[in-house]
């Protein structure tokens, strides 16, 4: 029996398809491999709880508050517990409970938590130029030099800026060079821009360019630092692709990218560079993946840019905490002093918040076992 259809000759795959096919092996390995060293970092292990923890601390300051006043704020605070009361009771080192009239629970801040809030305000006041300068860099990464205000609001926590920065007039965002432009009706038309619109401003060097300057003395060849996870072995063809990827031209997140083909490997290297730069500006060099996805169109990233996290496991680590996926920049935790990433001014304060959360865990453990509570803390100052 003869077939009328002729066998079709196999056509060579385009470069991007070859890349996607070869990197599928990395995707499978990434799902299987877990790096316990990142789970051991306190500020990462409490990544899911620390934001609602600090938000509730600010709401309860300066006077005791009945739980009914904050119980309806659970969805906006994004507490992992369904009830705000249950979340507050998980941290007795920060939230002190008492019973008011009609057996309604009241909560107030512990002395250690109140001191920590004051310290956070003092650090922001002293290092305001550095902290707000990071927000300016995020705006400069946008091709329009503007960001929707709701998107910028979602970045404040990760940048170490008070979350009432745009709402409280006392902060006076104009002194940091920002303005809020209104291009229509409703909150969706409010945008964060720069007063000077960055005209005639020399664009800053990215962290990857600063790394190249330190090692090579120039920014002509910019590579992405790679940090393999333990037990992750790549096929030879993937190693060859990574070598070619490192030799590709580098386009800074602050440069015009309109000449780049969206489906090219150069475009993917730019996406890696943009996400690398963005995470390096954050307090813990990490963020929820869904929040980064909100920046896609505003930073000129390709449609499927979220696959970059899985295709480049030597650059990014995906950390899963209570059904929330966090993206961690490996260089910040594995490069030691051999990196141009500067420590965020708010990082020490965040570490003290985490210490208060870990003390709460120890207090609950002692209560359940009937043992006396003895804690030594840099936050509390005494046992």
How is this structure best described in words?
- With 383 residues, the protein is mainly α.
- The chain is 43% helix and 10% strand.
- The protein is built from 16 helices and nine strands.
- The protein has helices at 15-32, 36-39, 42-45, 47-60, 74-77, 84-89, 111-126, 128-141, 149-159, 207-216, 236-246, 265-281, 289-293, 308-311, 330-334, 347-369, and strands spanning 65-66, 95-99, 105-109, 146-148, 178-182, 190-194, 286-288, 316-321, 324-329.
- The strands form three sheets. It has a three-stranded antiparallel β-sheet. A three-stranded antiparallel β-sheet has the order 4-6-5.
- The longest helix is centred in the C-terminal third of the chain and has 23 residues, at 347-369.
Essential attributes:
16 helices; single chain; 3-stranded antiparallel beta sheet; mainly alpha; 383 residues; disordered N terminus; 10% strand
């Amino acid at each position: 029996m003869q077939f009328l259809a002729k066998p079709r000759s196999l056509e060579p795959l385009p470069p991007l398809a070859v890349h996607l096919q070869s990197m599928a092996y990395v995707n499978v390995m990434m799902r299987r491999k877990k790096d316990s060293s990142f789970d051991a970092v306190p500020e990462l292990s409490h990544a899911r709880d620390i934001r609602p923890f600090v938000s509730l601390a600010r709401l309860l300051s300066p006077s005791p508050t009945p739980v009914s006043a904050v119980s309806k704020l659970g969805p906006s605070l994004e507490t992992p517990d369904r009830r705000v009361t249950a979340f507050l009771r998980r941290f007795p080192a920060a939230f002190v409970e008492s019973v008011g009239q009609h057996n309604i629970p009241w909560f107030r801040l512990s002395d250690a938590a109140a001191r920590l809030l004051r310290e956070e305000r003092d650090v922001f006041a002293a290092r305001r130029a550095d902290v707000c300068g990071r927000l300016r860099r995020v705006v400069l990464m946008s091709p329009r030099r503007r960001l929707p205000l709701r998107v910028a609001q979602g970045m404040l926590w990760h940048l170490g800026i008070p979350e009432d920065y745009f709402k409280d007039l006392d902060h006076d965002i104009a002194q940091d060079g920002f303005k809020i432009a209104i291009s229509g009706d409703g909150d969706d038309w409010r945008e964060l821009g720069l007063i000077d619109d960055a005209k005639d401003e020399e664009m800053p060097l990215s962290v990857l360019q600063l790394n190249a300057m330190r090692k090579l003395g120039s920014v002509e060849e910019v590579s992405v630092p790679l940090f393999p996870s333990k037990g992750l072995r790549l096929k030879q063809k993937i190693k060859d692709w990574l070598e070619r990827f490192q030799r590709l031209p580098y386009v800074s997140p602050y440069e015009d990218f309109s000449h780049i083909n969206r489906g090219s490997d150069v475009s993917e290297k730019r996406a890696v560079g943009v996400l690398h730069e963005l995470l390096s500006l954050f307090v813990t060099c990490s963020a929820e993946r869904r929040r980064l996805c909100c920046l896609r169109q505003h930073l000129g990233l390709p449609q499927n840019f979220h696959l970059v996290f899985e295709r480049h496991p030597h650059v990014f680590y995906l950390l899963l905490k209570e059904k929330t996926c966090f993206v961690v920049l490996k260089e910040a935790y594995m490069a030691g002093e051999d990196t141009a990433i500067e420590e965020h001014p708010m990082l020490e304060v965040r570490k003290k918040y985490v210490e208060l959360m870990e003390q709460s865990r120890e207090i609950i453990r002692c209560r359940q076992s009937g043992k006396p509570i003895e804690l030594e803390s840099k936050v509390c100052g005494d046992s």
